[in-house]
Amino acid sequence: MTSFELSPVPADAPVVERGVGFFETVLLVGRRAVLWEGHLARLLGSISEFGFPSPERRRIEASLSERLDGAFGDATERAVRVSWIAIAQDLDAPASWRLDVSIREIQEATLKRRGGASAVTLPASFRRDSATVKSTSYFAAVVGLRYARRTGGDEGLFREPDGTYLEGTSTALVCWNEGSPVFAPGPVLPSVTRSAFLGARNDRRPLTRSLVRNGALLLGSLTIATPIVRLDGEECRVPDGMRRTLAEFNERLAKDPGLGTHL
User: Fold this and answer.
1) What is the pLDDT of residues 44-91, one digit of tens each?
2) Distance (Å, rounded) from C-alpha 148 to C-alpha 170?
3) Around 229, how many Cα atoms within 13 Å sit in the side-chain half-sphere?
């Protein structure tokens, strides 16, 4: 992690007491930020949606560039976290908000997940409070991943009240559907990585257990694209076509100039 000093956040700050804030996590390969434009658009779009003061794009990129200077080699993978958090009570005042940009190591568990994910169905009581927004109000995701790991998995899947699946705690869920990929119609995060994977396709249908077990994948900025190989300990099908498509997509994420921004 880079060693930039950050001032303490007050204990009564809205981000601490209420989870008021927004963030993005982006994969860095050297100085290349993968899907940077999509992540930046989602961050600034969410802030604008709620009418909060917003940081300027150039300020975000300048802060990241400063932290990158001389830090890593061309092939080094790291994660960048961009956060816009409320540190004072007047949420309409620009001075009440703080931009934090940090560079971090990717957790070993996340890297391991790339080889095939073991998913766990989360209890119905585990529900995001702002499912379509990448907010710092992230309790359900934190306890959901903890639950998954304590029960032998490496990702937890949120569900609708009817039992169909929505998404992972930090990943999008897509079912292969025999080569016609689909994702949940319910409230899910507008995943940047999922959008890049699906392109113009935007087909939705309820994600049943049988559909997931017949071939499904997780997509996330650090997870990239990985098949679900087990669901609640039961083996899942990994179709050859899906496996090939995932490998091709991950290769594009790593190397395609159109899917990354040099900062």
Assistant:
1) 999 999 999 999 999 999 999 998 886 665 668 999 999 999 999 999
2) 12
3) 13
Q: What is the DSSP string of 165-225?
A: EEEESSSEEEE-GGGS-BB-SSS----HHHHHHHTT---B--B-HHHHHTSEEEEETTTEE
**C-alpha distances in angstroms, 152 versus 97, 125, 226, 232?**
39, 20, 18, 8
Judged on CB neighbours under 10 Å (0-12, 13-18, 19+), 254 is middle
Which structure tokens are listed for 131?
A: 């499912």
pLDDT at 68: 87
H helices of the chain, where? 14-17, 36-49, 57-68, 108-113, 139-150, 192-198, 209-213, 240-255
Among 112, 109, 249, 251, smallest CA distance to 176 is for: 249
Backbone angles phi, psi at 210, to 5 degrees: -65, -35
Please give the Cα distance from 43 to 29 (Å, whole number). Answer: 21
CB-CB contact of 43 with 22 (8 Å): yes
Whether pLDDT at 1 is above 70: no
User: pTM to 2 decimals?
Assistant: 0.94
Between CA 1 and CA 241 the distance in angstroms is: 38
Domains of the chain and any CATH numbers = 14-106 (3.30.470.10), 111-254 (3.20.10.10)
CB atoms within 10 A of CB 92: 9
